[in-house]
Structure formats: C-alpha cells, structure tokens
Amino acid sequence: MQKDIATPIRTQEILKKYGFSFKKSLGQNFLIDPNILRNIVSHADLTKDSAAIEIGPGIGALTEHLARASGKVVAFEIDQRLLPVLEDTLSPYENVEIIHSDILEVDVKQIFQDKLADYKDVMVVANLPYYVTTPILLKLLMDRLPIRGMVVMMQKEVADRITASPGTKAYGSLSIAIQYYMKAEVAMVVPKAVFMPQPNVDSAVIKLTRHLIPPVNVIDEDFLFKVSRGSFVQRRKTIINNLLSSLPNGKEKKEIIIHSLEKVNINPTRRGETLSIEEFGRLADELYPHFH
User: What is the model's pTM?
Assistant: First the structure.
C-alpha cells in the first residue's frame, strides 16, 4: 500500500524537497490528516465505474484517495510550481490526469467530452480554494455539467449560507441558486488543525446531490436568480423596496411589482430571507413577462 501523502511528516518532506512556499493569493491550505480525506471520499460514494473531478489538488493528498476509490481522476491545478510535485507524488496512480489551468477559465464541458465520456457517474470532490469557492460552485452549476453531485470543503460560513433554510440569517441568493440545482447538506465540520498552514477560519465539507427534478418549475432559470439576487440587495429592506431598485425600471413599474406579489400571495412588506425557493419561482414567473 502506498504511503499516504497527507501526513504532517510526509507533507513537510515533499515541500522541503521542492522548496515549495505557500501562496496566500491562491488560498493554499493543504490537508494533513488521512482520516479526514478518507471521510470526504466516503461521502462521494465512488466506485471504479465513477470518475472524480478535483479542483486545486495541491500536492495530491486528496487526489490519491480519489485515485484509489474511483476509475479516473481529472484534477485542475492553477499553480505551475505544483506540476512537478504532483507528477512525483501521484506517480503510483495511472488513473490521474492533471490539467494545468484555472477551472474558472476553462471549458469544462469540452473536458467532459474529451476525458470523461466513458463515465456515466461523475462527482466533483475538492478542497476548494476559499477565496473563489462561490464562483467555482456557481460556474459548475451554471455550466449544467452531467455530474451526480459534489463533495467539497469550504469555509464554514459559506457552507452555512449554501445549506441555509428560509427565515435564517445565513439564507440568501447563494442558498437559492445552489438549492435550485442540488440538495445541500453539511457532511462534516473540519478543525483548523488538519491543515498546513492553518487557515484563520473554520471549515466544513458539504455534500450536494443533484435534484432529478428542480424544486420549482420556472419559465426562465436566469430570471429566477435575478429576482432572488435582487431581493437580497439590502437585507433589511422589504422585498418590494429591493425589487423596485433592482429590477430594470422598477420604480416606474411599481404597480406591476405590487400586483405580481399580491397575485402569488406574497406580502410586499416581507423580507427576501423569508421566501422559499417555491415562492421565488412563482414570483419570477409572474414578473417575467413584464421585465423581459
């Protein structure tokens, strides 16, 4: 059995061998606890018929666990300095492919066709760079990739927002955008001590599972997200006030907005955080003909 990369001693050895220094700008925090990694991978329910997509493999700590559990791993690494390290640490695994690019810049759909066409079951499993967690998640969802779901580590505060229910302080447009596509749950909370260097924030792993049918059927998904984003522009304001300022020519169309809210039984004095996805869906469909 291959010796785990993710131990403090082995991690230190690898970093020393390559003279590697952490780049704060890339949000590099490497995991140094094999049990945590095994736990993350177990939540992804992978088999040798599954493929995994990883973002930010670092020195390959999670990658090797994914390689052992799945048929193929495609990992995106932005930091050129890590390419020779990964080539070395992952040399025992023939089912890993490292792509040197920024996941936010790349055509992931094309990579799916080129590299993962043989796999019907694909999961995203990653310790995400904290400074770009939200853009990465939204890109993967908006690209409508044929994935079963994601098991991803992130800042606990962002995990709380993604999994939040209506009426809570953490609930907002991010909760709605992600829960529209996926069932979201916190799989585990992760202590700072299992990272090198230790981050300043608590971390959590969330599990996202794709809905077979979205929780609400809408005319236009992008417009639903526009309405939900607009409803949270200023959290303390009522939904009517937020929509007046966020929808195009909202102030001139005040009567239409009030009428639409009343038609779908939403009191204009409610705040955005009290509305469920279903209510946002009905509201978006009611407003759509007037703002499109």
Answer: 0.93
